[in-house]
C-alpha cells in the first residue's frame, strides 16, 4: 500500500467525524430532548446544558398524561408489550416454519423447492399494501382484527424470507458428510437433524432470528392497517401518541427513545451478522 | 453402536426409504408452502378487486368492470402525479444514497479501529424503525423549537418550513430516507470493497498509476456487481416507500408526496374506493415485479460468488 500523507489522514478523519455527526446526531438529540421539560425544549437558542428530568419517562410508565385539557390515559406501555409479543411470537413461528424448510432447500433438490423459496423471496419485494388492503377486509370477516395471532401470521411475510434464505446459506455451508456418517451409525433422520444439523447452523439461526426480530419490531404498515387500537406496536402507537398528546414534546421524545432502544441495542449486539443478513447472504459479513 | 445394528438399518425395505426420501423435503417445507398459499389468496383478491367498481360506502354499485379502473388512470392527473412523485422519490433517494454510501465506504475501507467503530455506529440509523425515524426528524424540524429549523435560521432561512412547504417537502423526506438507508448501501459496498482481490491495486501502486485512474478503471468496475445489487435493492424498497412519507406528512402538503402506497392507503381508507386502490397497487406491483426479477438474478450471481470466495 502506498504511504498516506499526514494531510490525507487528517482529511479522512475529519470526514469520518462529519459522517458520524450526521448519522448519530438525531439519536443523540432525541435522547437529550427526552430528559427535558417543555420549557427547556422550547428555549431558543437550544442548549445541551440543562437540568435533566425523568418526568417524561415516569409519565409514560405510569400512563397518566397531564395536559391543559385534563388527564389523558396513554397506553404506551401496552404498545411496548405488544411490540415485544408480536416480534417474539413472529420470530418463534418463523423459526419453526423456516428452519426445516431451509434445511430441505439446502439438502434436497426437489422440484417444488426452488419455487417455494423464490415465491417467499418475492414476498419480500412485493408492495405490502397489495395484500394488506384485501386482508383488512378478510380480517374483519375472520374476526382476526383483534387478535395477536392474525398479526403474527402476517408478520411471517417479513420474518420468513429472511430466516429461510439466511439459514439455508448456513446449512449449505455445512458439509453433509457429518450427517451421513451419523445416519450410517443408525440414527434416524430426525435425530440427525436435531443433534447435528441444527447445532452446526446455530450461528446462522441466531443471526437470522435477531434480524427477523428487529425487522418485525420496526414494521409499521402491517399493524397500521391490520391491528386494532388494543394490539398496536410502538411504531403505530408512537404516531398515534404524537397526534393525541399534541405539544408534549418531551414525552414524545421519551416514547421514541423507548421504542427504538431495543432494536438499536440488539443491532449493536448482533452487528457481526447484520451485513450478511441484510443482503440475505449476498455479501459475506 | 454395533455393526449388527448398522446392517439392520441397511435392510429397511428400499421402496419405503425411497418414498421417505422423496416425501421428506415436501413435508419439511409444507408449513412454509402453506404460508405462501395463505398470502396468495389476498393477492388474487386484489387482482379481482382491481377489475371491479367497488366502493365501501356504496355497496350497491359493486360490479365487474374489467379494466375500467386502469383505463381511467390514463386520463387521471392524480395517477400521473403519483407515478412521477414515486419515481422522483425513488431515483433521488437511491442516487444520493449511492453516492454518499460509496463515499463513506471508501473512507472506511481500511479496517482500522476508528473505521470499524464508525461502521458499527452507522448501523444505528438503519436499525431505527423508519416510521420512528420520521418522527425524530419531525421533532427536529418543528418550526417552534426544532434544532434544524434553528440551525438553518442562523444561515438566513428564518422561515424554513421543511416538510410542510411543498417546495421543500421532497427534500425533507429525502433527508430522512438518506439518514436511514445510506448505511445499508455503505455496509454492502464496504463488504464488497474489502472482498476485492489485492493484486490489481498493488500492481497499480507499483507502476505509480494516478489514483483517479485506479478508482475509475479498477475499483469501480470491480465493485459494479455490488453497486448494482445494492441500488436495485434500495430502488425496490424506495419506490414502495410508505412509513417515512406517511409518518412525516401523510402524502402532503397537498399531493406533493403522494407516492403509490400512501395514495392507495388513502384511496382505501379515506375515499373507501377499494377498486381504484387495488388497481393502483397492481400497477406498483407490476413495476416492482419487473425490477425484482432483474434484482434476483443479480443477487443470485453475487450470492454464488460470495459463497465461492468464503
TrEMBL record, chain A:
Keywords: Cell membrane, Membrane, Transmembrane, Transmembrane helix, Transport. InterPro entries: BP-dep_ABC_trans_perm, MetI-like, MetI-like_sf. It is found in: Cell membrane. The keyword Cell membrane applies. The chain crosses the membrane at residues 12-32, 84-106, 118-139, 151-171, 204-229, 249-270. It comes from the Bacteria. This is Carbohydrate ABC transporter permease. It comes from Dongia sedimenti. The lineage of its organism: Bacteria, Pseudomonadati, Pseudomonadota, Alphaproteobacteria, Rhodospirillales.
UniProtKB/TrEMBL annotation, chain B:
It holds the Pfam family BPD_transp_1. Keywords: Membrane, Transmembrane, Transmembrane helix, Transport. This is Sugar ABC transporter permease. It is a multi-pass membrane protein. It is found in: Cell membrane. Residues 83-295 form the ABC transmembrane type-1 domain. SUPFAM superfamilies: MetI-like (SSF161098). The keyword Membrane applies. The chain crosses the membrane at residues 24-51, 87-108, 120-139, 169-193, 213-233, 278-296. Gene3D superfamilies: MetI-like. It comes from Dongia sedimenti. Belongs to the binding-protein-dependent transport system permease family. InterPro entries: MetI-like, MetI-like_sf, Sugar_ABC_transporter. Its main location: membrane.
Amino acid at each position: 500500500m502506498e504511504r498516506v500523507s499526514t494531510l490525507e489522514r487528517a482529511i479522512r478523519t475529519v470526514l469520518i467525524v462529519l459522517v458520524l455527526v450526521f448519522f448519530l446526531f438525531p439519536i443523540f438529540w432525541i435522547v437529550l430532548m427526552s430528559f427535558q421539560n417543555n420549557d427547556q425544549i422550547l428555549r431558543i437558542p437550544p442548549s445541551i446544558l440543562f437540568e435533566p428530568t425523568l418526568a417524561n419517562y415516569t409519565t409514560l410508565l405510569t400512563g397518566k398524561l397531564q395536559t391543559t385539557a385534563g388527564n389523558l390515559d396513554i397506553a404506551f406501555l401496552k404498545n411496548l408489550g405488544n411490540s415485544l409479543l408480536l416480534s417474539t411470537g413472529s420470530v418463534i413461528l418463523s423459526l419453526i416454519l423456516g428452519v426445516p424448510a431451509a434445511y430441505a432447500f439446502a439438502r434436497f433438490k426437489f422440484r417444488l423447492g426452488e419455487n417455494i423459496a423464490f415465491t417467499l423471496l418475492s414476498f419480500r419485494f412485493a408492495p405490502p399494501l397489495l395484500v394488506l388492503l384485501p386482508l383488512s377486509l378478510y380480517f374483519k370477516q375472520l374476526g382476526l382484527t383483534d387478535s395477536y395471532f392474525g398479526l403474527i401470521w402476517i408478520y411471517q411475510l417479513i420474518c420468513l424470507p429472511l430466516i429461510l434464505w439466511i439459514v439455508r446459506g448456513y446449512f449449505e455451508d455445512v458439509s453433509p458428510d457429518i450427517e451421513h456418517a451419523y445416519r450410517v451409525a443408525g440414527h434416524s433422520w430426525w435425530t440427525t437433524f436435531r443433534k447435528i444439523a441444527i447445532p452446526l447452523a446455530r450461528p446462522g439461526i441466531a443471526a437470522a432470528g435477531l434480524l427477523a426480530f428487529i425487522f418485525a419490531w420496526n414494521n409499521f404498515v402491517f399493524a397500521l392497517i391490520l391491528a386494532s387500537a388494543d394490539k398496536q406496536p410502538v411504531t403505530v402507537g408512537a404516531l398515534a401518541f404524537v397526534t393525541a398528546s399534541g405539544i408534549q414534546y418531551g414525552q414524545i421524545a421519551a416514547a421514541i427513545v423507548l421504542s427504538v432502544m431495543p432494536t438499536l441495542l440488539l443491532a449493536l449486539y448482533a452487528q457481526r451478522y447484520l451485513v450478511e443478513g441484510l443482503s440475505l447472504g449476498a455479501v459475506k459479513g | 453402536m454395533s455393526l449388527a445394528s448398522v446392517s439392520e438399518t441397511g435392510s429397511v425395505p428400499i421402496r419405503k426409504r425411497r418414498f421417505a426420501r422423496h416425501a421428506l423435503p415436501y413435508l419439511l417445507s409444507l408449513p412454509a408452502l402453506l404460508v405462501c398459499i395463505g398470502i396468495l389468496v389476498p393477492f388474487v383478491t386484489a387482482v379481482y378487486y382491481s377489475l371491479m367498481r367497488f366502493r365501501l360506502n356504496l355497496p350497491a354499485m359493486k360490479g365487474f368492470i374489467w379494466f375500467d379502473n386502469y383505463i381511467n388512470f390514463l386520463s387521471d392527473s392524480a395517477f400521473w402525479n403519483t407515478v412521477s412523485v414515486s419515481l422522483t422519490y425513488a431515483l433521488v433517494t437511491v442516487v444520493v444514497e449511492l453516492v454518499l454510501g460509496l463515499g463513506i465506504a471508501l473512507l472506511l475501507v481500511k479496517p482500522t479501529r476508528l473505521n470499524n467503530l464508525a461502521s458499527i455506529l452507522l448501523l444505528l440509523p438503519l436499525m431505527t424503525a423508519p416510521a420512528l425515524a420520521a418522527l425524530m426528524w419531525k421533532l427536529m424540524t418543528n418550526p417552534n423549537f426544532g434544532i434544524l429549523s434553528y440551525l438553518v435560521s442562523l444561515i438566513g432561512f428564518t422561515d424554513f418550513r421543511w416538510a410542510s412547504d411543498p417546495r421543500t417537502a421532497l427534500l425533507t423526506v429525502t433527508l430522512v430516507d438518506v439518514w436511514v438507508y445510506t448505511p445499508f448501501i455503505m455496509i454492502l459496498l464496504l463488504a464488497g470493497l474489502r472482498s476485492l482481490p489485492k493484486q490489481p491495486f498493488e500492481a497499480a501502486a507499483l507502476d505509480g498509476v494516478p489514483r483517479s485512474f485506479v478508482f475509475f478503471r479498477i475499483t469501480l468496475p470491480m465493485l459494479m456487481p455490488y453497486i448494482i445489487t445494492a441500488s436495485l435493492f434500495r430502488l425496490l424498497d424506495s419506490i414502495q416507500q410508505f412509513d417515512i412519507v406517511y409518518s412525516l406528512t401523510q402524502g402532503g402538503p397537498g399531493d406533493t408526496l403522494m407516492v403509490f402506497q400512501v395514495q392507495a392507503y388513502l384511496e382505501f381508507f379515506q375515499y373507501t374506493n377499494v377498486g381504484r386502490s387495488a388497481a393502483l397497487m397492481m400497477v406498483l406491483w407490476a413495476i416492482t415485479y419487473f425490477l425484482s426479477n432483474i434484482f434476483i438474478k443479480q443477487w443470485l450471481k453475487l450470492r454464488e460468488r460470495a459463497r465461492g470466495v468464503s
